[in-house]
């Protein structure tokens, strides 16, 4: 797992003091005037925006527009209406309490079963009021929609058998074999739909339509179809003369009631019977229609903009911004583009726009690409050059290219083709069987150049073999260079070889790729930009790329305002954290965070874990010329951990050998070491890696330690560990204390909901296989990570992980058993009682899946509770969805509210302006973003039986406070984190479960394109579980 190695991912501030300034390099932001500058919608190109900041500041006179007062007034009215209903809701839920089975350890009074749950997606009880008010920019534009009705059609495209006739370009019309219609996809479908729309416009000059060039068509008026299907002809090859015939069938229409959506935005009511509350998101058809309308412009020219998915657009012409990712000789590039999506908000429709980045195939003339990568055709004997060729060839299949060549009559033509791959002898061995005259490769060559491959050339004299080099020299007078040959044939007709000199890779081809460690670093460096730069790009360049000022939008009655919105926010106070003093008196010591971070100078952990009597270490040499860490460093490490207050024997057990040299993660020598550890009753094994792992050692170590032998493992990197840095030692020490069952720090002031020790907090997440080429029916599983607290300090979070069907987000019935085990674990640590309140942070579900959580997962949770509680008692539940992969960003409007990196300050919460007052959600930026643009976490309440009944109108403040202060309880860092620990830990559990399944998720290949073919897999991984010794620990830290 690239990047998962070594426990050095999060540098903490420790006894050594603050991290050096050079560790926090950020782009310098002009603090005066940034606020007004990012609000301006300049027509200048992105490259010239920054030099024009002074002029823009003058143009806006330094004034930041206040949030729309009419929207604020409407939000207040809606929430006041909703707050008036709180007394009836709280009276139904007030006093709910639980007893464990038998009732003797209830704590609290008896209560009836819960009322019928018609309060799905509860209404916002109030806007939060705590914290210092601030005004922020948001990456949203207001969208004005005059029309009240659109029409939606669907389209079906088929390629048809065409009669033999002269085409418009003078060629013969093509036909499909057998006369049967064929499905049309991708670029071919784009050109067909574009031709069909042009034909409709010819028939009706007032025709107004938008499409995503797949299967949906949005129109302003009903279509009067002269013919249906619409028959069009499109060139068989891009740039060619021969034509193919297609039929575009139009179905519909369905009416899109935009007027109803506008009425809802103005009132935020659920309808007379409240039934509409169960539907979320609201008015998806209307929002989708607007997305299609707004996306139609940038999608219409595929030579100017590459549209990826439903909402990402990348300029590929003069405005392109790219960075090559060729560190490992792969034909990849990173590109900067823009995201856009409409959002329903209180009183208005908004367009969420953001900077986005993607991975594409590199584009340009093939010879220039190969020269830049220093790649040529070489024999098998040149190992390093062969490795480069393999890496380069990995992402060539299916790449679209332009090919320049001459036809039989000597005419120069340019055609669009798809690369099948590099010309390889292995491919000919597989596919060339049965051929009378298969291509011939020179002995000792796998990847052939023009001199090393001969093909059969038919002639009147009977034919002969000729090399590609000689053929081009004799026929065209061209001398080819020693570049690898490219196969532009098909699976049915392979071995159509072209020299690199004739090939040009077309731009805008996105690709799913698991990046290597080096490529990931380059990608992050490219994507990491200051909030100032991103906001200016959104205000200016994005409008050009997304064509937000295109006059054609007005035909639909749609316009996008040209200034980013301002919204109201609040900065919450940071909590004080507690440790023990380092003088040995075990006296509580308060530490006040500064900018979301603190250090451990003169303090010890608040609670040591179980005593680690027996531990050991080894230098794992996985690279040449590795320098092992000496024993005295390990001894200093043990002493340092003891000084931190961790319960550990200062002196480790000597290993059989201080250095273990292995070059294969599956080496029996590695497993033999674990067998020795087991015999010696070792509790903790410290593995000192000679370098950051990119070969699968980390995954193998964690699988052996966590699953096979039940021994805690800690991976460190020799370069960092060997320096003996107190910061590094402390960072690893925090993890070791958590593994051993300890608590590193807690909050000085206990949260009210947790103070009485009757509340359990749960977090769970599902991770899915991504960027993997898989065979249908043999897909890698999705993995569930599940954690739950065991006490009021929220310092320990034992975990579970399991597999479920690939790409399935909703949890199955396994959730019932998992939840019951967490209830039992909580009861074990709380005197046999079960929790009265259960707060659940569900990570990673999209808005379209909110109701599925309530319909599919909530019943499993209630079933688990039914098994553990007496029939007449039950726990109160609150379910909050936490989402970090969204596109909302906020920017400071004043230097007084700006962090050193130009971001909003940590603790900033936003719950109005870009939200729907009807629903209960908020954006929280708990952390201090040192680089790039801070991404807030988005929290939405799906169910609440706790906060409104306990706090009434203060419920919103209390939930925001709880979530914010939880972010200061992430045990392995001395900083507030970006998403609350229950969700964060669950995500880490999922990542560890991936490491336990290298058969599916192996990233050891330096070329990092995982292909799950099933070949050579051992029998199943579903039964792979964490060893019983570690099952109720934080083994995953």
UniProtKB/TrEMBL annotation:
From the UniProt record, which GO molecular function terms apply?
RNA binding
Region entry Disordered, spans: 90-125, 161-181, 1002-1023
Q: Which residues form the Piwi domain?
A: 684-998
PROSITE patterns from the UniProt entry? PIWI
Task: Report what the protein is called.
Answer: Piwi domain-containing protein
InterPro entries, per the entry: ArgoL1, ArgoL2, Argonaute_N, PAZ_dom, PAZ_dom_sf, Piwi, Piwi_ago-like, RNaseH-like_sf
Show the Pfam families listed in the entry: ArgoL1, ArgoL2, ArgoN, PAZ, Piwi
